[in-house]
Amino acid sequence: MIMHPQHSNNATQFSNNFNALNAANNLNNEVVHTPLNAPSQSINLQRKQTLYHAGDRANSLYRVREGLIRIIRTTPEGRLMTLRHVMPGDFFGEEALSDSTRLEVAEALTNAEVETIDPTAIDFVDLQTVTHSMSKQMQRLMDYEYHLQTGDLRQRVARYLIQLAQTPLAVQNDAGHMMVSATHELLAEGTSSTRESVSKIITDLRNENLIASGYRSIVLLEREALLDIAEELY
After folding, report:
1. Quick one: pLDDT at residue 201?
2. What percent of the chain stands above pLDDT 90?
3. Which domains occur in the chain, in start order?
């Protein structure tokens, strides 16, 4: 495939963004939670447990201590769409800072520990900490929103699998491959698609020996090949 210079630059940007996320998430394994002056308490969530729903009053700000949270919204067609992943050390539930109602749903993708914070007790120093976290999340969101919403579904699925492999949803198996705990429905919700369409892509990737799939799990056998697929658009 011949790549135009601009396309090549975009491919490099995708690889750079992926490597930056990888480095950031490796740091998250040993994340240091900056202490807040505002009082807080920790709550534990089970996998698939919902923390809040759209329309709920936004009374608390949250920070992930362990695990992975996703923020989702229902489309007019009734499908769920993943808007962002909240990693250890990230704040979320920022609607509480403007005394408004929730617009999305927050759901635990893994067992998680979450810090709940009273927004009325946040001082200027705390606000700087929150703002710094939200700024990093916004950059991460913009980078991956573009890459997950462009290209054909095969490319979007490859990108999403690569992204999920750098979150608490993934573990390294005995063979040294990353195994992602994900259903076809979760992949569909993160790639603006349907479960049936994603299932076909997963079957194709499995037949090409790029991945192995089992019950609620996908093993990335050929990470570099998946990166090549993710960059084909460029």
Report:
1. 96
2. 64
3. 40-139 (2.60.120.10), 149-230 (1.10.10.10)
pLDDT the model gives residue 108: 97
Taking the C-alpha atoms of residue 31 and residue 90, their distance in angstroms, rounded to an integer, is 10
Question: What whole-number distance in Å separates Cα of residue 9 and Cα of residue 11?
Answer: 5
CB 110 within 8 A of CB 65: no
